[in-house]
Structure formats: structure tokens, C-alpha cells
């Protein structure tokens, strides 16, 4: 497994942990939807979304790490869109890393830039980020990237894609 894949896997584990803690059926609606789904349904959504997203060469989709039991021993439920959000987040992080990696070829960087610019059409952006976060993300990441400045992507990947 490449170092980037390990980082992606650890990022998914963090997301899964967040989902368990915030995914109790007695909790108010989350950013991931007002409906709740099982571990199996969230995992299925994750891999169905992943099937439509291409990772960089030599990278594999990590298991999302959802569990059927919460920290209190009760059945864990997940926001209905969490699998889609997580898969598109893993995809964004993988391409964001390729974009900012000094080891990436120019062709890989060009491909990564195109993918990173597509993130605004993914569940990570449209569902996973709150409206204010989407605006900030567009101003700090997308707009500079359109001008060829990858610093916003580098900061975002460093902060959020550990």
C-alpha cells in the first residue's frame, strides 16, 4: 500500500469515527441528511459512489470502516448521504495530494487539477460542506486554483486529508 493510500485510509477511519459519534438515531438531523441508514447501506453507498470516481494510478479504495455498533454498544446508524460524502472526500484527497506532490509528473498534475476542480459537483462539496464552508472553500481553494495557484489545495489537503 502506498503512503498516500494509508493516509486516505486513516482519513476514512476518522470520518467513520465521526459518523458513529454523530450518527445516533436520537440525534438531530446532520449535514449528511435527515434519514438514517445502517452500516451496510452506508457502505454500499460508499462503494457505489466510488465506482463512478477514478482514483490516481496505483491507489485503491479503502474500506470506509463503518461499524454496526456505536461506542455505547447500540446499533450505529449513519446519515443517509455519508457513504457518498466519504467516497467523494477520499477521491478529492487522493487527487489533491497528487496535485501538490513534488513527485507528480506534469501530466499527473494536470489530471489532478482537472479532478480537483470537479469536486464542487461531488457530495463532499454539495452535501458534506455547510453553505458558509462551501463559499470559503471556493474562495480559498477553487478560485486560486483557476488562476494556477495550488497553495489553497495544499493547505486544505494538509489540514483535512491526513
Automatic annotation (TrEMBL):
At the top level of its lineage, which domain of life is listed?
Bacteria
Q: Which PROSITE patterns match?
A: PROKAR_LIPOPROTEIN
Stretch forming the signal peptide = 1-25
* Keyword Signal applies: yes
- Is Signal a UniProt keyword of this protein? yes
Alphabetically list the UniProt keywords.
Signal
Return the protein name.
DUF3558 domain-containing protein
Q: Which organism is it from?
A: Microbacterium paludicola
Organism taxonomic ancestry = Bacteria, Bacillati, Actinomycetota, Actinomycetes, Micrococcales
Amino acid at each position: 500500500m502506498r503512503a498516500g493510500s494509508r493516509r486516505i485510509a486513516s482519513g476514512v477511519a476518522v470520518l467513520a469515527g465521526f459518523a458513529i459519534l454523530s450518527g445516533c438515531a436520537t440525534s438531530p438531523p446532520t449535514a449528511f441528511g435527515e434519514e438514517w441508514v445502517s452500516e451496510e447501506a452506508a457502505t454500499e453507498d460508499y462503494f457505489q459512489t466510488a465506482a463512478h470516481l477514478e482514483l490516481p494510478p496505483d491507489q485503491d479504495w479503502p474500506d470506509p470502516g463503518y461499524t454496526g455498533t456505536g461506542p455505547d454498544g447500540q446499533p450505529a446508524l449513519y446519515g443517509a448521504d455519508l457513504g457518498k460524502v466519504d467516497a467523494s472526500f477520499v477521491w478529492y484527497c487522493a487527487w489533491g495530494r497528487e496535485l501538490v506532490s513534488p513527485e507528480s509528473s506534469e501530466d499527473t498534475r494536470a489530471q489532478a487539477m482537472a479532478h480537483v476542480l470537479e469536486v464542487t459537483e461531488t457530495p463532499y462539496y454539495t452535501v458534506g460542506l455547510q453553505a458558509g464552508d462551501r463559499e470559503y472553500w471556493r474562495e480559498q481553494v477553487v478560485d486560486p486554483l483557476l488562476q494556477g495557484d495550488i497553495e489553497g489545495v495544499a493547505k486544505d489537503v494538509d489540514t483535512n486529508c491526513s
